[in-house]
Amino acid sequence: MKASIFSRLMLYLGIFFLVLCGLTYFALSTYFEIYYTQTRTEALKANTEEILGIYNQEGLTPELQSLIGTKGEEGTVIQIIPNKTTSGEGSTPQGMGGTMGGSSQGTGQGTGQGTGQGTGQGTGQGTGQGQGSGSGNGSGQQKSFETQMAEHQDGQSFMMVSGNNDHTVEWLSYKKVAEDGAQIVGRIPFYSVHDVVHIVQNFLLVFLLIIFGCSLIFAYFFAKGISKPIINLNRISKEMGSLNFTQKYKGHRKDEIGQLGETLNHISDELETTIDQLQIELNKERTLEKMRQRFTAQVSHEIQTPLAVIKSYAEALEDEILETREEEREYFITIEKEADKISGIASDLLDLSQIESGAYRLKKEKVLGAEVLGSVVERFEHTYPGKNIRFENNCDPELMINMDRKRMEQVVYNLLDNAIKHVTPENGAIEVKSEVRSGNWAVSIYNDGNPIPENEIDQIWGYFYKAQSDKKGTGLGLAIVKGIIKCHGGQVAVENRENGVWFEATLPLQ
pTM of this prediction? Predict the structure, then answer.
């Protein structure tokens, strides 16, 4: 996979840079030739028209001839061809020309003495009007030059060809006609334009080859920098798919790849946390299921015992085996007590069901907290006169608390009942206290006895929970206590203390 990603990136980037360099070379070479030709033509026109203006004002003066020799760019030829006239022994109708830094291809000046001097690449014989004759190699081309000139109008740019069959030269030319009919022509050899364009093309070719080489080097490192973290991220994602969340992205990039790595780390952390929570919930569900099974067995036992008593006592009454009314009355009382046990279990199950479903409703009212505690403690003192129950109210006896009185009496009853079941020795201390602490009304119950095992202390408030060592009750009492207190907006707590266990339930005063 590494080779695949890296090679494809290199291939795509290489093709991209190759196409880019090719298009750049084509565009620059093509448009540079057009631009350079237009620039040279505009310069040729400007120089020619400047000479035309001076000629129309002053004529062909020595100063103008000197200016022609220095005007224009390298290789430029500017010529003035006077209108053809005849004069005695004087002048010939030859034009004059000037060059700048290059060979000229025009006709020379002739003198009335018959010597015609000229430099040029044409061949032929030249004649002069005067007392002598001369020969030169420049006047023979004059006719051909004039013929080409005559084919074009004033202010027209055109291409002109000079030379012979062995060697020809193309000229980029521009023609202007003076007021006296003289023709002023500016020319530049077209081969010089091609030379410049060719030089520029070669330079561009070398330059773009260098750029292409540098681009390939850049593409190599760029592709490597892209593919390496992607391969690493792919490996991390595979580990995540195998539920291995120890692998993390450790790069320091701030771009999209770095952001993707950080996102993968976040997803990995979230998945790990979620899976751990699901595992905890699954373990709780398994524990809860075990507790339900134990609860079902315990409730069945708790109900079966009073039912068996009721059934046996009812059969005795039915068979009329009792001799006195007093014995019958005791049997009826026992049947009533056992029925109350079954009713209590059913009531606890109903309360627990309502708490779990959220349908548990409280009927709150302002009542004296000390009075609620005192009534429950007094009931237990009469029921268990041998128990060492001590009640200590450390808050204002007139303190009114907003609560559901019946449900709070059930809370205190369940806590006291739990304390009495687990107090050791039988005459061990059971302490009930109430106080105001941090804006809460706190009720605590302590009993001497064995501590709760540490692995069970966090589970005692759970529904259907019953300690392994607990042989009494259904295991619903403390779960109902927590549910009622939570509905009041309070909290519960438990703590192993020296020689005993301490429970507490708190309600907010506001």
Answer: 0.44
